[in-house]
Amino acid sequence: MVIFVNSRIERYKNRKKNKFKKFMALLVIINLLLIGIVIVDNSFSEFMGIKNKRVFYIDSKNEKYTATIFGKNYTVEKQLIDNLKDTIIKKAEDVYDSIRKVIK
User: Fold this and answer.
1) pLDDT, tens digit, for every residue of 20-51?
2) Domain ranges of the chain
3) Following CA atoms 86, 87, 89, 93 in sequence, which dihedral angle do they give, to the nearest 10 degrees?
4) What is the DSSP letter of 100?
5) How much is the pTM?
């Protein structure tokens, strides 16, 4: 009787591949959902004769982002987005540095 035992590295690689496959499947499902919503919205708007009504729309004007999601308009200043992005990058770098210190 032969028993095959995977090494830890092989199991780690397999887990990593499975995580990536699940992540990609999730992205595909979300994209299909959004495409389906947009197609149904366009068909419904055309059927009802409605113009200028959008389910998803993002626009950038005058230092502000305007997003329309399910008929509601949301406005966010670009400066706020830039500050949030910088904060996330700094925190990610801090986490990366702390992990490197632990590994060494």
Assistant:
1) 999 999 999 999 998 998 888 888 878 877 77
2) 7-52, 54-104
3) 130
4) H
5) 0.51
